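Q&A log
Question type: sequence-to-structure
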Amino acid sequence: MNAFLYRMPSGIAGDVSRKSHSTIEAHNTVSGFAGFGLFGKLNADGKFAPLTSADTAANIYGLIVRSYPTQSASNGFGASVPVTGFNDVLRRGYMTVKCNAGTAKTGGRVFVRIGAGTEAKPIGGIEAVADAANTIEVPKALLSNEVDRLRVQAVQQFGGNIKPDQLPAELFEEQAKRRVVLGLIVAEVVKQFDLKPDEDRVREMIQEMASAYQEPEQVVAWYYKNDQQLNEVRSVVLEEQVVDTVLQKAKVTDKPVSYEEAVKPAAAPGAAE
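Response status: OK
Response body:
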């Protein structure tokens, strides 16, 4: 006997959460998807199709949605695969997905498998670590995370009875892009020079901040009991160490200029002299 399920069990890949904040489109889908909650692209015929080893991040179009109702007899619990024909595709929003490699972290890097697919690591699946040419990074995931952080900061700064996700993403995209690029540069320097937060500098920074309070010892103790706050200080210290490292490695060349040249505003790109 077949049972028809009209409510998505929580935690199943392909489930769309916060549907009111999502952009979902219906697309004619070709065969080949190993499951739901996987990235795909639009092929030359305009159909939603699995990614291939030749694709780049620019080819990614969206995530295939597990829509309801479904027939439980033919769709195993969390193990069904999309059928050909029209399926929903998430273009923007929130979805339950499975991280097939590495450990997912807030603000962490997101990779999508495009080659050497297996049952455990399907094509289009999400992974938290790179696998050479078999995965590509999704930079927009970083941008989305940064936009969300800026939204929260704006609400905290200006107050008001508004939720962060009610603020248009477009207001924060340019600033988010700059911060993401800077973050990637910092991460590359940290990786290249194997930098670690200097714990002495971390303690000095915490003690300096705590000195503004009546009982600085309690403030210091509070930081060391709260991992999130402590890690934020460590991040600031690590960024300072990155700057120090870059300055140490930089080659500086002196160039004599007149006072007028020094204070002259830089010309806009492409502007005539």
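Response note: Residues 268-273 have pLDDT under 50 and may be disordered.
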